Each structure stands twice: as C-alpha cells, then as structure tokens.
Amino acid sequence: MRRAAFIQALGLTLAAMAGGEEGKGKKLPVAGESFELGGREAFLIRPKEEKGEKAEKDGMPWVWYAPTLPGLPGVEERWLFEQLLASGIGIAGIDAGESYGSPDGRKVYDLLYAELTERRGMGKRPVMLGRSRGGLMTLSWAAEHPERCGGFAGIYPVCDLTSYPTVEKACGAYHLTADGLRAVLKEHNPVDRLEGLAKAKVPFFAIHGDVDTVVPLERNSGLVAERYRALGGEMELVVPNGQGHNMWEGFFRSAELVAFVKRAAGR
Fold first, then answer.
1. Which end of the chain is more exposed for a tag (fewer CB within 10 A), N or C?
2. Closest by Cα among 122, 138, 140, 133 to 194
3. 11 pLDDT exceeds 70?
4. 124 by DSSP, 3-state: which?
5. CA–CA separation, 57 vs 10, rounded Å?
6. Separation between Cα atoms, residue 50 and residue 61, nearest integer Å
7. Dihedral through CA 176, CA 177, CA 179, CA 181, nearest 10?
C-alpha cells in the first residue's frame, strides 16, 4: 500500500511539474500556475530564483505571450521560456479566444494586466510576444497602451487584419459586418496604429520567414518594419531564408529573440 501511494504521489508530482496536475489546469511547457480570471484561463510562470535586488521594486519583468489558446503555449516554446526564466523574466498570458485584436479581446487583456501588476507583483511594462495570430492581440493592446509596453517581439506575427484572417473572417469578433469593419479598420488594425508606440520609443523585433504564404512577410513584419522605422521607431527584423509558416526550430530557438527580450526587459 505504501509503495502504491508513493508511486501515485510521484506521478502527480511529475504531472504538476509538466504544467499542472493531470486533468487540472492548463498544461504548460514548463512548470507554472494556471488560474481563472473573468471566466478566462490564464497562466503565470515565475523564475525559480528572482534576480536583482529590487527589480522587484518595479515588479518582476515579464513577457506577455499570445495566443494563449488550448495547446498554446506549446512544447515549441520550452527552450525559449527556459532562457527567459533563467534571466529572471516571468511569462504570462490569457485566453482571449479568437478575438483578432478586437475591443473585446483588449478588455480581457486589461483584466490580466490589472491582476498581474496590482495583485501579483509583476512589472508595469511587459514585453509583448506574439506568435502568429498572437501578433494581432499583443500589438493591438500595446497600441492602445504604449506606456505599458516594454517592447514587442514576434514569431511570424500577424500585424495586418486584411492579410490574416481577412476582414471577412475577423468582422464577427468586432460585432461588425465586413464593410463595417473596413470603414473603421485604421482604428483597429495594428499596422495602422504604430505612431504612439514609436513616440514612446518601444523597441520592436520580429523573426519571419521569407516564403511565408499564410502570414506573408511583406504584408506583416516587413510592412511594420518599414512604417515603424519611418516613424522613428527601432525595429530589428530577422528573415530566415526559405522558411514559411512552420515549426522550424530556428523560430523557437532564436538567440536574437532572447537577446532582444532580455534588453527590453532590462535584463
């Protein structure tokens, strides 16, 4: 009996280390906490050792990851998360659904920001990290709150609604018809809302393949780089040759991405 109890306890411990007890909470690529906020699933991963005397006077530096959907963040992010945690940088996110950067999704982000900065000791200027359509969510919120954004980093991020998912598919999340969303597109489309971020001197980074047909480089990261630099903003763009919208390891084990996030987070 004792042996059976020990084996069961060990199994639960290992499951928790993998991202939560089996059947409970969100499964994360590294150990962390999942919790409900406003009826949405959120997560927070803290470094084991908090670095710096009082980085914690300004709160713990952290990365805001998106999209936080079932299965995301995934095992692909494990290496990246481990590098950030080793530098004393936390990671968090919240499931805003397929909101495509809409006002509803931005309100969900407001909830997480308030929870983490007011009640959980996290810093007030997270570095936004958008993977694919997570770019729409993170950039849209950042454009609305440039003073709360320490930086933006993207892994083939969607930056233009007309490119992906298209206005026709996104309009429902905005409670508008396709024509209605087109009429107000510049008020919502991240690629058209960069001025405030440039004025606030928020640094940008993206890694984006040159043969991406799902989220084309030239209509997303490439266009953001062109416009952001024209506004006086700083953006580093890494373009791996021959890579598309795929699971190539180089997207998720990018030394340039890690170095950028550490700088933007003050690490």
1. N
2. 140
3. no
4. coil
5. 37
6. 10
7. 30
Give the C-alpha separation, 266 to 59, whole Å. 12
User: In this structure, are strands 33-37 and 40-45 parallel, antiparallel, or unpaired?
Assistant: antiparallel
Count of Cβ atoms closer than 10 Å to residue 93 Cβ: 27
Residues 6 or more apart in contact with residue 62 via CB below 8 angstroms: 89, 90, 91, 92, 116, 122, 123, 126, 127, 265
Tokens of 235: 């953006």
Q: Over the stretch 183-213, which tens digit does the pLDDT of each residue have?
A: 999 999 999 999 999 999 999 999 999 999 9
Domain count, the chain: 2
Say if residue 12 is in the same domain as residue 62.
no
- Whether this prediction's pTM lies above 0.85 is answered by yes
| Per-residue b or e along 46-59, where b marks 16 or more CB atoms closer than 10 Å to that residue's CB | bbeeeeeeebeeeb
Three-class secondary structure of residue 220 per DSSP: coil
Question: Residue 61 in 3-state DSSP?
Answer: coil
Q: Measure Cα distances from 69 to 66, 96, 133, 226 in Å.
A: 8, 8, 11, 30
Closest by CA to 60, choosing from 122, 128, 115, 127, is 122
The larger pLDDT score, comparing residue 248 to residue 5, is at 248
Verify that 139 and 208 share a domain, yes or no.
Answer: yes
Q: How many residues are present in the chain?
A: 267
Please indicate, yes or no, whether residues 181 and 51 belong to a single structural domain of this protein.
yes
| Same structural domain, 70 and 52 | yes
CA 142, 149, 172 angle in degrees (round to 5)? 20
**What DSSP element (H or E) covers 222?**
helix 221-230
Instruction: Tell me what the mean pLDDT of segment 72-76 comes to.
Output: 96
Q: Which range marks the domain in which residue 7 is found? A: 1-28
